[in-house]
Design brief:
Elements: E1 8-9, E2 15-18, E3 21-25, H1 26-37, H2 41-45, H3 53-67, H4 77-91, H5 94-112, H6 116-147
Helix pairs in contact: 1-4, 3-4
């Protein structure tokens, strides 16, 4: 036992049992977490940027079986499944994939054009914006108190 109502079974991979009900495997949960942490469609499907249509299709089928909401009750599985479907729809279409790759390249070039000073100023700007918002919030609270 690893906690109240939770037991680990090792024959087909660890399964969590909550109140005696088999819910999901660690593999399913880790797949959901990996999808949530992924930054782009290639990473989501775990394929290289020069992956063939067959590689993309095989990766999609594997993830679709693992994440399908009818088979995976892990938290976030339904959302992860939708993300996998979207990644497949984009990468399996030659036109959509070309547009996606081009937009990623343009975004990366824009980010590379920023110098350290630019990043610093963006951070300072964000910090000042947050500070200004907090000060306006406090000022409005003080005005409300003085009216009462």
């Amino acid at each position: 036992m690893h906690g109240p109502g939770c037991m680990v079974e090792w024959n087909h991979g660890p399964r969590l049992t909550v109140e005696g009900r088999m819910d999901f495997t660690y593999e399913q949960l880790e797949a959901v977490r990996r999808i949530e942490d992924s930054q782009d469609y290639y990473e989501i499907l775990d394929v290289s940027r020069d992956a063939s249509d067959g590689d993309i299709r095989r990766a999609y089928k594997k993830l679709a079986l693992l994440l399908h909401p009818d088979k995976n009750n892990a938290p976030g599985a339904a959302e992860a499944f939708k993300v996998v479907v979207t990644a497949f729809e984009v990468l399996s279409s030659e036109e959509k994939r070309r547009e996606y790759d081009l937009s990623r390249q343009q975004n990366m070039m824009c980010m590379e054009d920023l110098s350290g000073t630019d990043w610093l100023m963006m951070g300072v700007g964000a910090g000042l914006g947050a500070l200004a918002g907090f000060m306006l919030y406090k000022a409005s609270q003080n005005q409300n108190r003085s009216k009462n």
